[in-house]
Design goal:
Layout: E1 11-15, H1 18-31, E2 36-39, E3 49-54, E4 69-72, E5 91-92, H2 97-115, H3 118-126, E6 143-146, H4 150-161, E7 166-170, E8 179-183, H5 188-192, E9 197-200, H6 214-218, E10 224-228, H7 237-245, E11 249-254, H8 267-270, E12 274-276, H9 286-301
Parallel strand pairs: 1-2, 1-3, 3-4, 4-5, 6-7, 6-9, 7-8, 9-10, 10-11, 11-12
Helix pairs in contact: 1-9, 2-4
Bound molecules: glyoxylic acid.
Glyoxylic acid is lined by residues 74-76, 99, 284.
């Protein structure tokens, strides 16, 4: 692998959380000092910027006439208006071990807390009830993951190692060791019918918006649980509340909602069988993200394919 000193001097702009930006600055200074690293809005002459890493692009993106690659600082890219980005500009989602590790932790925590009835025991404790519920083996709790990209595969490997029978559903057919793979719309009902715990890790696209709806919940086994770590736009929140109240779903762990933050007084805040976290399932970790970005800059400068390149047609 080429060393960082083989990168040519150029300007790189970071436009996201400024606190983590300072960590990026230190890492760039250490690992690629020849790069002029800048934190937006201190971009200098925008026409000189060759690379931009952003959660959202600047309003004057057209002024970045020499921009060669736009990196998302997050795993998702649905926050970008793809129509508004120049068609020639490569857009790259963040693929880095820190995000993967965080997501594996969160989904494992959620799956185990569902599996081991954590919510029921929390309610029992509040009511000072000492009552054992039957402990089921992991082998009797079937987990299914919607999506089969880098994050779903890492999550499935961990859940599989804990003994959960694992399946995944994706748009196109894949083979993954130890995972029952389902593909395409026609296979969705069969997949759903074997998901005691359904995990949503899909990208948000026109095809997947609103996919977690009444019709989908109806196809899950009675008393299934949902772990939603995709995007708020995947979920029809009123349908989830209805499915919980009808007992179709036993519980939901949600890391995302729409809008974010959830408005005060919303029913999801207080639902006794909903665990809600503020979009923290995973976060880009500067130490590993900067190394992943530098590896991509080396690929780019060597004319090699970029890791995480978004296919515009597909929308992820
Ligand atoms: C967070 O949601 C991300 O896209 O990394």
């Amino acid at each position: 692998m080429a060393g960082p000193d083989e990168l040519t001097p150029c300007t790189f702009v970071y436009k996201a959380d400024p606190v983590r930006g300072e960590e990026w600055r230190q890492l760039f200074a250490e690992l690629a000092p020849q790069i002029d690293f800048r934190i937006w809005p201190d971009v200098g002459d925008p026409a000189q910027v060759r690379y931009l890493a952003a959660w959202l692009p600047p309003d004057d993106l057209h002024a970045y006439a020499g921009l060669e690659v736009l990196f998302s600082v997050g795993a998702g890219i649905d926050q970008f208006d793809l129509e508004a980005l120049p068609a020639r500009l490569p857009l790259v989602r963040m693929v880095e071990p820190g995000i993967v590790g965080g997501m594996v932790e969160y989904v494992t925590l959620a799956a185990l807390s569902i599996h081991r009835e954590w919510q029921a025991y929390a309610a029992q404790q509040r009511a000072e009830v000492w009552r054992a519920l039957r402990v089921r083996p992991a082998s009797s709790r079937r987990v299914g993951v919607l999506g089969l990209g880098v994050l779903p595969r890492a999550v499935l490997a961990q859940l599989g190692s804990l003994g959960f029978p694992c399946a995944a559903w994706s748009r196109s057919q894949h083979d993954v060791d130890g995972v029952d793979c389902y593909a395409g719309a026609a296979a969705l009902p069969g997949f759903l019918s074997r998901c005691d715990i359904l995990v949503c890790l899909l990208p948000l696209t026109d095809d997947t918006r609103g996919i977690l709806n009444r019709e989908l919940f109806r196809q899950l086994p009675q008393g299934a649980a949902l772990v939603h770590v995709g995007r708020g736009g995947h979920l029809v929140q009123d349908d989830l509340l209805a499915a919980l109240d009808e007992g179709r779903l036993a519980q939901a762990v949600l890391d995302v909602c729409e809008p974010e933050p959830l408005p005060p007084g919303h029913a999801l805040w207080r639902h006794p069988r909903v665990m809600l976290t503020p979009h923290i399932a995973s976060m880009t970790q500067p130490a590993s993200a900067v190394r992943a970005v530098l590896a991509n800059l080396r690929r780019h400068q060597a004319g090699q394919p970029l890791e995480g390149l978004v296919e515009r047609q597909r929308g992820y």
